[in-house]
Amino acid sequence: MKNTFGSQPVESNSWKRWLKEAVHLSGKNLALNVALVLLTIGLLAPFSPMLLLITAPALVGVFVLVAHSAASSEPVLDTLKSAPAGILRVLFCSTAAVSIMAIAFFFILMIVKGTALGSPATTSTYVPQDYQFSDFLVGSKALFAIGLWLLVILPWFAVPLMVCTNLPLRLCLDHTFKAFNQNKFVVFVVFFTALGLMGGALFHGLTVVPLFPILGGLMYSAYRHIFMGLPPLETAEAKSKSSIFDRLLQPK
């Protein structure tokens, strides 16, 4: 493959390569990934789940950048310092999308209430305040939030394009649609990934610790394969080691 930027079709079994690379990349900065998840989720725990829904894509964008740093061997701090604009773009888009959905839901609710005049009053159901899906409820909420975003499909490519490039928002969306059009199997990959995240949320909230970094690595691996045309990380590393070994064997 040529190392040029632009969407291109890839093999339908490429998801196996992406998953392998995602686990590899998330493990290269293991301590940082764990600290970022626990710190961010811990800070958001006291606030409304709506805030978690807004910030979840931006948090995944951070893990995409950490995966980029691991793949390119760049210092993590340098990568994160150069990308606040990209994270803010993701945050702006998620805020706008959630606000539009909230307004639409409000108007639908008003219409429903207006057509239900004269109906018997509804009674509220008591829900115990201490009921939890797991022992780490905020982790479950975070996984459900990003799972809902993935069901929209577009963030799979849009988030890496926003945080890893300086492309205008419109071009990011154009590239996103083109990539899905050329690689329709990715829709199924995204769907099953969303189901996996929601399943992890039901199993235990602490699954957010490994799943968020792996998701960031998975999205970045798909991005570097489809848009940058780069070979598998293992192949690139093997070639690098081979070239070093060949230079050592050359007579001086």
Summarize the structure.
The chain has 252 residues and is mainly alpha-helical. The chain has eleven helices and no strands.
Q: Could you explain how this protein is built, in words?
A:
It is a single chain. The chain is mainly α. The protein has eleven helices and no strands. The protein has helices spanning 14-28, 30-44, 49-72, 76-81, 84-115, 137-151, 155-164, 169-182, 185-203, 208-226, 233-249. Helix 2 packs antiparallel against helix 3. The two termini are 34 Å apart. 37% of the residues are buried.
**Percent range of helical residues:** over 70%
SS field, number of helical segments: 11
What multimeric state do the chains show?
single chain
Question: Based on CA inertia axes, which overall geometry fits?
Answer: globular
Order of helices and strands: HHHHHHHHHHH
Specify the structural class: mainly alpha
Contiguous runs where pLDDT drops below 50 for at least 5 residues: 124-135
Average pLDDT, rounded to a whole number, is 83
**Major sheet, described briefly?**
none
Percent of residues in beta strands: under 5%
State the separation between the terminal residues, measured CA to CA. Answer: 34 Å
How many distinct beta strands? 0
| Integer-rounded radius of gyration | 21 Å
